[in-house]
Amino acid sequence: MGVLDGKVAVITASGSGMGRASAVRMAGEGAFVVVADLREDAARETVDLVEQAGGKASAFTIDVSSVDQIDALMASVDADHGRIDVLYAHAGIPGASGLDVTEEEYDFAAAVNMKSAFFTLSRAVPLLKASGKASVIFTASVTGIVGSPFSPLYSLTKGAVVTFAKSAALALAPEVRCNVICPGPVDTPMLPLFFGRDPGTDVKPLMKDFLERDVPMHRPCQPEEIAEVALFLASDASSFVTGVTMPVDGGYTAR
Fold it and tell me: What three-state secondary structure class fits 137?
C-alpha cells in the first residue's frame, strides 16, 4: 500500500530534474502519473523509469505557454481518468538576467512561469473538484520570497506564483488544497544557468562561492529532496495544509 494508491497525478515539466524525481516518487507510492513535458522523448524516458520501478504512467507532450495545449492535456486526462487528485504545476524557466531585457524575453518568461501556472490550475478545476479531495502544488523559488539582484524578472514571475497559490487556496477550499514549494539551488541542468547566462562563463567557482557563502547547508538540493516534499504535500499527511509557501533551500531564507 502506497500513500497515493489509486490517485491520479498530473505533473508538468516532469521530463527531467525535480519534475522527473517527483513523478517517479509519486508513482512509487501508487499514483498513476501523467508525465507532461515539452520534450516528448524526455517525457517517455520518465515513463520508462516509472514502469521499470513497477509504477504506472503515461506521457503527454505540451508547451505550457499555450492555453490550447493545456486544454488538450485536461481533455486527455478527463477522457482517461475523469479526475485529478494531484496537480503539480512545476514548469518554469530562469528567464533573462538583469533589467535590460527585451519585450520578447519578458513575454516568454511570463508565459512559462506565470501564465502556465494560472491556466494549468484554472483549466483543471473541474477535474480537481471531481476528486473531492485534491492537492495542487506549484513550484516557485526562494527568489519569489526574497529579492535577487541578478534575476529580477525571475523573481517577479515566481513571486506572482507564491501569491497566486495563496489566493487559489482560499478560492478552492475546502475541496482543493493549494501549496507552493520554493526551492533554493537544486542540482539540475538548470542550476548553472543562474550563475552564467553569458556564453563562456565558468560557472563552477561562482556556484561554489554562492553555496559556501549563502546556503547554510553548503550544498545544492537534490531533485529527490524536492520530490519528498512534493509527496508530503500531495498526500493525506498534509491534509490540513493549504495556502503554505514552503522553502526547500538549505537555510537560504533563514537569514
Answer: strand
